[in-house]
Each structure stands twice: as C-alpha cells, then as structure tokens.
Amino acid sequence: MVAVVRPDGSCLFVNSVLEAVVGLSRKTLVQRSLLEWVREPVALQEALQAVACNEFATRRFETTLRRALPLPGEAVPVHVIVSQIDHSHHKVLVELIEIEQQTRQDREERVLGQAQVTKELIRNLAHEIKNPLGGIRGAAQLLAMELRSPELTEYTQVIIHEADRLQTLVDRLLAPHRKPHVVTDVNIHEVCERVRSLTLAEHPRGLRVQRDYDASIPEFRGDREQLIQAVLNIVQNAALALQDRIDMGDARIVLRTRVHRQVTIGKQRFRLALELHVEDNGPGVPEGLKDRIFYPLVSGREGGSGLGLTLAQTFVQQHQGTIECESEPGRTVFKILIPLP
C-alpha cells in the first residue's frame, strides 16, 4: 500500500491496494488525511514532519490501519515506512506493509528456498539410485530364468517386486521436476468434483465430503491432471488423519472455493486469486511437523512416503501459487492460492 501525502497528512495520491484495504475510492481518499486511518496519528504526524524537514531520510514504525469497510473500525496491523521524495519538503512517500502479509512472504521465501535445495538433493540422489536399480532388476530376471527350484525363484520375484517398488518411488521423487504437460482451461470445481468422487469411492461410509463453492470463479490456464493430483494428495492425507472419526462415522472434509482480491504470492501482487480450502475435523498436524510438512520424506504417519504434500506444493508452485496450512485439534485447513486471469 502506497500513498503520497503532504507534511500535514493530506493525501495527494493513493494506490489501488490502499483503496481496497481501507474500503474507499481513491477520489474519496485524496480529499482526506491519511492521519484519519491510522490508530496512532501522532506517531505518523511526527514522522511526516521529521522527514519533510529533512531531519531523517526515512522513519519506520508499526501501527494499525483502520478500515471503512466492511466493518467500521476493523484494523489491519501494518509496518509504516515514511520516506523523502527527491528531497521535496512538500511531498512525502508513505508505504504501509501488512505485518501478516510480510510474515507470510518471509515464510514463503524460506520454504521455497529450502524446497529448492532439498529437491535438487533428492533429484541427484534419485538419479544415482535409478541406474543400479535397473541392473539389479535385470540380474534378478536372468537369475530366475536359470533357476530350477520354485523356492529360489520365489526369492528372485521378491527382488524384482522390491526393485519395481523402489523404481516407483524414484519416479515420484523425479516427478516434481517435470513441467505441466497439458495446459488447458481449468475449472477448479471440476477438479474438486473429481477428487470428491475418488475419495468417496475409497471411503463410502463414515466420511462426508462437503462442497462450498463460489460458482463465479473463472477458468484459468493450467495442467488439470497436476491440480487433481495436488488436491487429491491433500484430501487423502486428511482422510488418513480422520481414520478414527471415519470408524465412528462423523468424519468431515470440506472443499471450499473463494475469490481472493489483491493477494501477494511470493513477491508478486495479483489482482485476483483462487483460494481453495481443504478443511477437516481431524486431530490436527503434530506440533513438531507444522514447519516441515511440505519437506520431502517428512511424514506424520508410519509407512508414509512423505511425498504427497511435497508433490502438491510443487504442482501448485508451477501454477505460480502456493499452499498454506493452519491446524489445531479438531480443525485443519490447507489453503491453495492460485492467481486468476
């Protein structure tokens, strides 16, 4: 959010993001003072005067920004940066950064950086495993052709079966590095319905998969199959976490779609974004895993590969999006954000 103001706080210019957050038009805002919309106007006034008089080139502080809409008095925590404009004594630049947004950006950058390093390590490891794995399987097949004892042949079949299982795992490790193959117009509700039908086919009793769709969401360009796999991986994880509730018959997963306006993903601002929530009433993500659930080979259950959420995050990132998670006992929400045209 950006505003250009006079030293007394009266607005000369505000950008569209500030319009959206405050809830008033630019025409209305430029007729009023920015001091009206902050909870600590004295701190802002002092900063404007100090920068305008060239006492400081920049002043920073934190405050809360009031909103006119949707609820009067609703506040947004912001970090304020007051700066000079070409040493002008008549105009001052004010930047307001949502603290929650800044925290999320820092977290996204940290997760993305860690994911890139980890994926590169795993990709190299997978390639190193793949070559000798083919040799092991081929040798076991040749050995099986020479053996006359059924008992010994059974052992070679175990080797072949396990080699095939490892090959599947290696292919899944390499999958995130494959770019979208089929880019078409994607309807997110078709994706959700496909995932819903697959989930209910696997869990016909004890689990409700509820819909809460915004029918106005437009189609966007993407790889439909990758997005189905991403949402399916999240829903399958939720279903596994809900196993006890499925046995009791009160397990619930909600697929919710909304349009999110003026959203920042990474460091890029988008006018519109799809927000898809996968919500469940399970026990929640273990506290020790919350910061690592998207890392490869990290799993919260015995026997899990730890690749489901990694693949989901990677497929969504390839659509310029991201996935976030909020979890507490009784309510876990995975939020998928994807820019819309």
From TrEMBL:
<keyword id="KW-0067">ATP-binding</keyword>
<dbReference type="InterPro" id="IPR036890">
    <property type="entry name" value="HATPase_C_sf"/>
</dbReference>
<keyword id="KW-0418">Kinase</keyword>
<dbReference type="InterPro" id="IPR000014">
    <property type="entry name" value="PAS"/>
</dbReference>
<dbReference type="Pfam" id="PF02518">
    <property type="entry name" value="HATPase_c"/>
</dbReference>
<dbReference type="Pfam" id="PF00512">
    <property type="entry name" value="HisKA"/>
</dbReference>
<dbReference type="InterPro" id="IPR003594">
    <property type="entry name" value="HATPase_dom"/>
</dbReference>
<keyword id="KW-0597">Phosphoprotein</keyword>
<dbReference type="GO" id="GO:0005524">
    <property type="term" value="F:ATP binding"/>
</dbReference>
<dbReference type="InterPro" id="IPR004358">
    <property type="entry name" value="Sig_transdc_His_kin-like_C"/>
</dbReference>
<keyword id="KW-0808">Transferase</keyword>
<dbReference type="InterPro" id="IPR005467">
    <property type="entry name" value="His_kinase_dom"/>
</dbReference>
<dbReference type="GO" id="GO:0000155">
    <property type="term" value="F:phosphorelay sensor kinase activity"/>
</dbReference>
<feature type="domain" description="Histidine kinase">
    <location>
        <begin position="124"/>
        <end position="341"/>
    </location>
</feature>
<keyword id="KW-0902">Two-component regulatory system</keyword>
<dbReference type="InterPro" id="IPR036097">
    <property type="entry name" value="HisK_dim/P_sf"/>
</dbReference>
<comment type="function">
    <text>Member of the two-component regulatory system NtrB/NtrC, which controls expression of the nitrogen-regulated (ntr) genes in response to nitrogen limitation. Under conditions of nitrogen limitation, NtrB autophosphorylates and transfers the phosphoryl group to NtrC. In the presence of nitrogen, acts as a phosphatase that dephosphorylates and inactivates NtrC.</text>
</comment>
<dbReference type="InterPro" id="IPR003661">
    <property type="entry name" value="HisK_dim/P_dom"/>
</dbReference>
<protein>
    <recommendedName>
        <fullName>Sensory histidine kinase/phosphatase NtrB</fullName>
        <ecNumber>2.7.13.3</ecNumber>
    </recommendedName>
</protein>
<keyword id="KW-0535">Nitrogen fixation</keyword>
<dbReference type="InterPro" id="IPR035965">
    <property type="entry name" value="PAS-like_dom_sf"/>
</dbReference>
<keyword id="KW-0547">Nucleotide-binding</keyword>
